[in-house]
Amino acid sequence: MTIESSFNANLEKSIREHWRIASLSDYGSITLQYSDVAEEIAKLHILFREAGIVKGDRIAICGRNMSRWAVSFLAAITCGAVAVPILHDFHPEQIHQLVNHCEAKLLFVGDRLWDKLDVGQMEGLEGVIRISDYSLLSCRNAGLKKAAASLNRLFGEEYPDSFSANDIEYYQDSPEELAIINYTSGTTSNPKGVMIPYRALVGNMLCAQELLTTHAKVGDSILSMLPMAHTFGMSFEFLYEFIIGVHVHFLTRVPTPTVLLKALKDIRPVCLVCVPLIIEKVVRKAVMKKMEDPKVRLLMKMPVVGRKLRQRICEGIKEAFGGNFYEVVIGGAALNQEVEKLLHDIGFNYTVGYGATECSPLIACQDWQSFSQGSCGRCVNRMELRIDSRNPYDIPGEIIVRGQNLMLGYYKNPEATKEAIIDGWYHTGDLGIVDRQGNLFIKGRLKNLLLSGNGQNIYPEEIEDKLQNMPLVNECIVIQRADKLYGLVYPDIDEVRRRNLKISDINAIMEENRKVLNSHLPSYEQLSGIGIRSEEFQKTPKRSIMRYLYK
Question: Which of 281, 360, 497, 533 has the greatest number of C-beta atoms within 10 Å?
């Protein structure tokens, strides 16, 4: 399929071409064909019109992934409104603030979330619509209230000869026009409203096409489990697939290992998009513990037996993920080096990408067959990437980018926009180097960079990556107090209970971890102590630790 320069033109074309095939499903529940999606969009457009929604008005969407979340989003942008996806994991007070900040006129909301919200704190809203059935939960707009009460009649009057593909006529967007305001879930600060233009949506669709063009076909299936209110999940588990005729299955429940593995087995997705946490849990639980057995380690060293054993392990992991995918695309956070080494050694078809909400999101990625271990691939087409360093091959510098995928700026925040975009280049705040082939290697966050007493740069993520692999460590970060480094660890509670460990035992194990870790680190990176946490670190919806809370 040829991707048009107008994003909404692509939506129109896809719906017409795939009218009678399955489009969106809630796993284990409803399935909507493309024709159903088109009809529901048409009904929502009637509601919007009667409510007085005009081009550029904001429509917010906040709830768990589901088919009608997707339809609500498509209805917003295809009528010329600005869609505002809001992560349902945000605190209710924060949701109130974001709805007010973007000046939303309508809010689509999930059932579970609605009971926690106070519409009185969102004074600019003219209506609140339930995502699951489009019913009105609150209304301050007479036109909207009247239309909602007689929507089927209004729809019948508008399309008296039945609704068909020929009745679709969506708002024709222009490249620089604002399509989405997406609030970041950053680990270093409070959310900012990223203004994403239509050209960036098209740019990401082109990137996805170049990565998966021969491996995702009409009628194939994909499992959507990342929050669609985040650009990674939206772009690569929903929008691209919708445009090319791939059937999107939404995992409407929390992706516990049991639920996720059953869904993967049932759906058998043609591609898997996930954050490191998911694949690391599967690999650690299913593979790495078994490979600690001395007999297994010995067998792995034998040329013939080792090769067959690695193949068997690889096939086992593939089957756990559905057994039908071309590759697993990992992004959103750094992949643990030990886990990645194992995946590479067994020949698993994975690749790691790099992006940012500000680039909606893709900056770098590579097909798994040409992917360089430890990297995030190469800069994608229509984007440029530079390392702000006098020697970008050896000395880490800030990663700066520009191109089609770049945002317009931060909504109502010109100061932050000027700080982030300088002479057309977006300053990511991430540190990295490149090799001679253009592969990008992330070294950490600029805001996380620590300075030793003798002026040495310390990248805490590199220390954390090693600490993460040590006994009893479930989650960890490295912080600096005065001139000393300390580790903060949330231990593996399942293992603590299995071994009936006391706090003194945990402390002893962590002290041994510290000594072993320090023996592999230069003096300026060594830890002075490890603190034990009794509860998990607070995280973003991407499952990245909100580091700024622990500095």
Answer: 360
- The DSSP-derived string for 113-154 is HHTT--GGG-TT-SEEEETTT--EEEE--HHHHHHHHTHHHH
Q: Which helix (H) or strand (E) segment is 403 a member of?
A: strand 397-403
DSSP 539: B
Tokens 């300088």: give the residue.
422
Give the separation between CA 62 and CA 89, rounded to whole angstroms.
9
Q: What's the confidence (pLDDT) of residue 454? A: 64
Distance CA 458, CA 169 (A): 55
Cβ-in-10-Å burial (0-12, 13-18, 19+) of 502 comes to exposed
Cβ–Cβ < 8 Å for 70, 228: yes
| Residue 368 tokens, joined | 């798994």
d(CA 225, CA 32): 18
pLDDT score of 170 = 98
CB 269 within 8 A of CB 325: yes
Burial, 258: exposed, middle or buried (Cβ in 10 Å; 0-12, 13-18, 19+)? exposed
121 — phi, psi (to 5°)? Answer: -90, 0
Residue carrying structure tokens 């516990």: 256
CB–CB of 280/274 below 8 Å?
no
pTM: 0.86
378-448: which CATH number, 2.60.120.460, 1.20.1250.20, 3.40.50.11190, 2.30.38.10? 2.30.38.10
Contact between residue 489 and residue 530 where contact means Cβ atoms under 8 Å apart: yes
Architecture of domain 452-550: 2-Layer Sandwich (3.30)
Token code pair at residue 132: 């699951």
Residue located via tokens 């009745």: 167
- The CA-based angle 250-255-259, given to 5 degrees, is 90
The closest of 347, 277, 283, 252 to 309, measured between CA atoms, is 347
The residue written with tokens 């040329």 in the block is 303
Query: How do 58-62 and 82-86 pair as beta strands?
Result: parallel
Q: What is the CA radius of gyration of the chain?
A: 24
- DSSP-derived secondary structure letter, 535: S
**Cα–Cα distance measured from residue 151 to residue 149, given in angstroms and rounded to the nearest whole number:** 6
Which mean pLDDT values do the consecutive 10-residue runs of the chain (551 residues) have? 92 97 97 98 98 98 97 98 93 92 97 94 96 97 97 96 95 97 71 95 96 91 92 95 97 84 94 86 74 76 85 89 94 85 92 94 96 96 97 95 98 95 96 96 86 76 92 94 92 93 96 95 92 90 78 75
Q: Where are the alpha helices (DSSP H) in 405-502?
A: 414-420, 460-467, 493-498
| Identity of the amino acid at 64 | R
Phi, psi of 185 (to 5 degrees): -115, 40
φ, ψ of residue 302 to 5 degrees: the values are -80, 130
| Spans of all domains in the chain | 7-248, 378-448, 452-550
Nearest to 120 by CA among 112, 108, 128, 111: 128
CATH 3.40.50.12780 fits 7-248, yes or no: yes
Query: In 3-state terms, what secondary structure has residue 12?
Result: helix
